[in-house]
Amino acid sequence: MVKSTLKYIMFAFSLALIASCIRDKENTIRFSSWQSSPSEKRLTDSLLHCFAKKYPEYNVKFELIPGNYSEKIQLMLGTHTAPQVFYVKDFVAPSYLRYDVLQPLNEYIDKNTSFDIDDFYPQFLDAFTKNGKIYGLPKDFGCFVLFYNTDMFKAAGINDPPKDWAELEEFSRKLTKDTNGDGKIEQYGIVVEPSIDKLMPFVFQNMGGFQDKDGNLTLNTPEFQGALEYYYGLYKKNIATIPTDVSMNNTEEVFGRKRAAMVISGGWFVPQLKDQYTDVNYKVAFLPKGKQMATIAFTVAYSSPKENSLKEETWKLLSYLTGKEGMKAWTSTGIAMPTRKSVAAQLDYIKHPEYKYFMGSVDFAKVFQVEYNERWYSITQSAMQAIFYQKADIPQKLKEMEDDMRSLRLKK
Amino acid sequence: MVSGYELKIKMKRNSSTKKEQQFWAYIFLFFPLMLLAIFVFIPILFSLVISFFDWELMASQQKFIDINNYIEIFGDKIFYKAILNTVLYTIGVVPIQTMLALFLAFVMNQKIRGRTFFRTAFYIPAVTSSVVTSIIFVAIYSKEGLLNSILGIFGFAANDWLTNPHTALISIMMLNIWTTSGYFMVSFLAGLQNIPNSLYEAAKLEGATKRQQFWHITVPMVRPVTYFVVVMGLIGCFQVFDQVFVMSDGGPNNATTTMSFYVYQNAFRYFRLGYGAATAIVLAGIIMIVTVIQKKYFPPNPY
Amino acid sequence: MATIEIKNLQKTYPNNHYAIKGIDVSIQEGEFVVLVGPSGCGKSTLLRMIAGLEDISGGDLFFNDKLMNSVHPKDRNIAMVFQNYALYPHMTVYDNMAFGLKLKKMPKAEIYQRVTDAAKTLGLTEYIDRLPKEMSGGQRQRVAIGRAIVRQPDVFLFDEPLSNLDAKLRVQMRTEIKRLHRKLKNTMVYVTHDQIEAMAMGDKIVILKDGVVYQTDSPINLFRHPENKFVAGFIGSPAMNFVSGEIIKEEGLYFVTRGMKISIPPPLQVSMERYLGKRVDMGFRPEYVYDKGLEKERRLSTDVEIEILVVENVGSETYNHFRLNGMDTIYSYRSSSSNVHIPGEKLTVGIDLERLHFFDVETEESIL
Amino acid sequence: MRAIKIQKILLLTILCFGAMVYLGPFIFSVIVSFSDNKNLINQPGQIVNSGWTLRNYIYIWKDLPFAIWLFNSVVITACQTVTNVFFSALAGFTFAKLEFRGKNLIFGAMLASLMIPGIILIIPKFLIINEFRMINSYPGLILPGMITVVNIFLMKQFFETMPKDLVQAALIDGCNYFQMFWKVFIPNSKPALAAVAIYTFQGTWNEFLWPLIATNTSEMFTLPVGMASLRYELLTDWPAIMAGTILVSIPTLIIFIIFQRYFVQGVASTGGKE
């Protein structure tokens, strides 16, 4: 009895000991990102493979972070476990930059003239710059465009994508159908979702915004409210659906499974359509125009923590990934658009039948950044849900949102 | 260890069994107490300290803001909603799970073939990981999932249980009742088996019916167990987290944001650790008040 | 083997409760000493202090003239048999007995030798591989004794070892332990609350009450010459009868109480002089009350009229309980079983004047 | 007689219905996990009609870090269960059988800490572990679960039922207090140790909140945390998710069925006393 117990104890501890001994090699660069699709994973792998070939003296280890990415990265930064290189989304950048936790890259950029920082589109670089210091190098960008199912359009007798709000509503109505005659609607005109990201293009199109230049909230304005009413109206009029109504997780899935004729999505959806939803015939278009043309551009940067024992190695990887060569390899599949002018020109995306809509959006796309504590997202998300699920009064909700968020403004 | 003990003997000529016991007791308790100190005693106090700071994980220096967190709590609508949700949750779950557990135990205590099988069946949800049961129930509750297809047979319209703010909390409550009632059934079963048979025999001689026996013997005799079940149920419900995290993430529109989840959100999503600690302390206060009230008005054994 | 010298031993608990209030006992080599007293008298505490299981608050304890106060129990070379046997439930009979020896790192062969010897002595050979739970109470008790024997200790300590056995087995084990003592000739200290057991077993009996020794003596002396009222009442069964009365002088000294006038026997006349006109307690044993109608030879007291209340016939003899002259106290009187009384019977008895005891009311000391 | 028979049938019906309700979700999950139709949830009533496949299990095992999570869970559960049972028994023994200065104070503090809801500890525990730089490491996951006040309490109660004479017999036999604990008391407390061990095992294996907070990277996840992350990673690939849930449940289920007796005893012994 005693001996066998001892054995168990020894076993348990040796397990733990072995487990904690399986450590990474000293000079391993840890690299973390989320993964929006298996194709993105493949791309990351091949890119890292190319880097490994070019610099065989460095070890790069990829660590996937599933779910709640930004929180996890912030937690890792706070808990001294951050990887050497990781993605930073543009709209959470302000909360990262507020602390002194990211490595400013100017010093390295200045040393490496071949890196050519001026090649980047400035609006994307700005998203990661504070007080003249660059904390992240935008690896790519994407923006919301309109995907539409050409078969469905043809069946409804529509040839071109909607050009403005009125057409969007009209087409949606035409495309909403009970295809098998069971009294339930199988096909919706468009799929929307109760989420601030999808709403924001409409707000920008309506000349509104989330906050003004000084950081004051502008939710309770006619522009914002008008956009929200139009957006929610699509759902209220039953010509749009939301994913949960058809038991799915996101709008892309609804479109892919042919439950909606249109969806607002970004470049990351293209490989997914090609891999998973091969039977969907679709085309891409600019988002319909409101008072003006507008969309949101998303950019993601590679950043590195200040607390890092492998600074030189990290820079090697960073500069490879966002250098001309790396970016070209990364964006050549069209998963995302390059943030370097030279790469965009090289790949000739401006004339590409699909990609031209992404590249073309750069002219009027806005980078969406909010200078409030992370909780702002949950507040707006709840409010959107209240409007969609509980038919909450829109003006009142907007006012509440402003009240709830005011105290969350980031300290300078 | 041994040499230390011998040293002690030598040092203290008048050493004694009491001293020796004391010496060993401190050795035995050293490691357990150190762990308890680090992970229980100190955190309780530390938590109070944090709650007076605007504690940010990544900041190099934390800012003392005295009771501002608490002031914010009292103006925080979501906090009230979280309390309301937690209270509703508790009020909904505890009585039903207790009664169901007692009922199941009572049925199981009859002489019935296959008792072990039924006991295992009822108990399995309780030993299964809450994450697993939550995920299974997400599938069951989804709009085109099992529940709706069963209800569809009876002509009910499909409902998206977890994204409908009216049903989301109730759905999680049902899951909780499903998981815990089997566990508490076993507690009751043990309690029932401890009731001396002679009591029932005496009641039979006096002409009590089965129902009278249940209400006048079984229920009062299992009162200590009931107390335990209610206390454990209260503690569990007040701290429900896993199910909320997996199933609804607090949504839709905070309809399922419970106190624990709100504490978690504030601390690990919004990184407002000070505010999170303050909400945790208020929650702890509420739980302790409820337990004290319960102890006073519903003592375990009044006889 | 060892002598044990207990000098002014004291035991105090933190709440200033005195469990043992300064006890002196000296135990000879090979002596069988019984500590007896009512529950809570401190006898077990005293035994445990000898064993080293309880701290000594004051005084000294010597084994063979060596001071033992701070010696660890395992180094005192003692063995102890417990009331609840305290066998290790997970060990076989063999392992139970061998455990202490194994801890001493004794060679295996020697352990085997000792254990099998002890098992043979106690008739446990065939049970050697059993677990305690598979044995009867008496067998377990034997194992417990065996465990003590194998250690070949200087001193055996018994803590009410027989109190969990049924009456018959108890008597049987009693003789067995005595036999063992005769064989091993070790010093043995035996605790019991049962005075019959004490009388039957002890070479020397120490009577304790409230942490104080009331008398230390051989069994027969305790019975015949109790030094105080407590010992007088404690030893003997049924217990000694006590009656309170006054000493008066007529033609000699008399003890008088309601309906009884007893002349003080001559040896005591001198010492009783002091109590003239004062109250004293008189004690007489049920054994020394005689039916005046039957007993003619002994020097009995004057007639005492009694009325029998209850009769207990235990076969070999009869205990008759009676009241004296309207007094509340119930007294007893032992008669032979051939002389059967019935309740309600009125009777004239006399008390053997040679066997009277008198006690000082205040000090409760025997008046000699 | 007939009334009794009807009553029996009624009881049995209730129990069978109950068993359906309690086991149904698991059966559903098993069926889905073997299904090769990813859409099946969207087509009510067709669950059973779809094709059967092991593909989901293979996918879960090979393409996802399931094996790593399983390894982590095993390491953490083994370490915590063994140390927790050992320390609980040791502390329980100390409180039950030894006298020492401060005993009541320490025990009182432990009892009082039972009154404090666990949620209050999460944030400071996280910060403390972070100070030790142990977030996202095995020590960070294991250390906080190495001792549980409730287990100490249970073991103390158990040891109190064992006679004090055993202590004295062991002392005279020459045990020191550790030998006494290890050689006399431990071998005689198997049922209590088993109950505590099984409880700890179950609690650790299923623990979610702490590993969720204390891990950052997928390679440090335990099974429940990994499963929860799959919920958002695999989205509506229900067959794969269900295969995962089944794999996670199997170890607890096996342990439960083997040690059912101790489970029930454990519940009974904690429920009976308050």
Q: What is the highest CATH level, the class of the largest domain in chain B?
A: Mainly Alpha
**Helix count of chain C, per DSSP?**
9
Q: Identify low-pLDDT runs of chain C.
A: none
Q: For the record, what is the CATH homologous superfamily label of the largest domain in chain B?
A: MetI-like
Query: In percent, how helical is the residue content of chain B?
Result: over 70%
What's the rounded overall pLDDT mean of chain B?
A: 84
Provide the low-confidence segments of chain B as ranges.
1-15
Please give the domain count of chain C: 2
Number-wise, the strands of chain B total 2
- Described by its quaternary structure, the protein is heterotetramer
Mean pLDDT of chain C: 87
What is the name of the CATH superfamily of the largest domain in chain C?
Answer: P-loop containing nucleotide triphosphate hydrolases
Compute the CA-based radius of gyration of chain B. 25 Å
Q: Which helices and strands, and how do they pair?
A:
The complex is a heterotetramer of chains A (412), B (303), C (368) and D (274).
Chain A: H1 2-21, E1 28-33, H2 38-54, E2 59-64, H3 69-78, E3 85-89, H4 93-97, H5 106-111, H6 122-126, E4 129-130, E5 133-134, E6 137-143, E7 145-149, H7 150-155, H8 165-175, E8 188-191, H9 196-205, H10 222-236, E9 240-241, H11 251-256, E10 260-265, H12 269-275, E11 282-285, E12 295-303, H13 311-322, H14 324-331, H15 341-347, H16 355-361, E13 365-367, H17 375-390, H18 394-406
Parallel strand pairs in A: 1-2, 1-3, 8-9, 8-10, 12-13
Antiparallel strand pairs in A: 3-12, 4-5, 6-12, 7-10, 7-11
Chain B: H1 2-11, H2 17-50, E1 53-54, E2 63-64, H3 68-74, H4 77-108, H5 115-127, H6 130-141, H7 146-153, H8 168-193, H9 197-205, H10 210-221, H11 223-238, H12 242-247, H13 259-269, H14 273-297
Antiparallel strand pairs in B: 1-2
Helix pairs in contact in B: 3-14, 4-8, 4-11, 5-8, 6-8, 8-11, 11-14, 13-14
Chain D: H1 2-33, H2 55-63, H3 66-97, H4 103-115, H5 119-131, H6 138-142, H7 149-160, H8 164-172, H9 177-185, H10 190-206, H11 209-214, H12 223-233, H13 238-258, H14 260-272
Structure in words:
The complex is a heterotetramer of chains A (412), B (303), C (368) and D (274). Chain A folds into two domains: 24-143 and 299-359, Periplasmic binding protein-like II (D-Maltodextrin-Binding Protein, domain 2); 145-296 and 369-408, 3-Layer(aba) Sandwich (D-Maltodextrin-Binding Protein, domain 2). Helices cover 44% and strands 15% of the residues of chain A. Chain A has helices spanning 2-21, 38-54, 69-78, 93-97, 106-111, 122-126, 150-155, 165-175, 196-205, 222-236, 251-256, 269-275, 311-322, 324-331, 341-347, 355-361, 375-390, 394-406; strands at residues 28-33, 59-64, 85-89, 129-130, 133-134, 137-143, 145-149, 188-191, 240-241, 260-265, 282-285, 295-303, 365-367. The relative contact order of chain A is 0.16. In chain B, strands 1-2 form a two-stranded antiparallel sheet. Chain B has two domains: 4-50, no CATH class; 75-297, MetI-like (MetI-like fold, Orthogonal Bundle). Chain C is an alpha+beta fold and 368 residues long. Chain C has two domains: 4-234, Rossmann fold; 241-360, Beta Barrel (OB fold (Dihydrolipoamide Acetyltransferase, E2P)). In chain C, the strands form four sheets. In chain C, strands 6-7-8-3-9-10 form a six-stranded mixed β-sheet, with helices on both faces. A five-stranded antiparallel β-sheet of chain C has the order 13-12-11-14-20. In chain C, helix 2 packs across helix 3 (108-122), helix 2 (93-103) packs parallel to helix 4 (137-150) and helix 3 packs across helix 4. The mean pLDDT of chain C is 87. Chain D is mainly alpha-helical. Chain D has one domain (63-269): MetI-like (MetI-like fold). Chain D has helices spanning 2-33, 55-63, 66-97, 103-115, 119-131, 138-142, 149-160, 164-172, 177-185, 190-206, 209-214, 223-233, 238-258, 260-272. The radius of gyration of chain D is 24 Å and the shape is globular. Chain D starts with a helix and ends with a helix. Classes of the chains: A alpha/beta (412), B mainly alpha (303), C alpha+beta (368), D mainly alpha (274). The interface between B and D is large, with 106 and 95 residues.
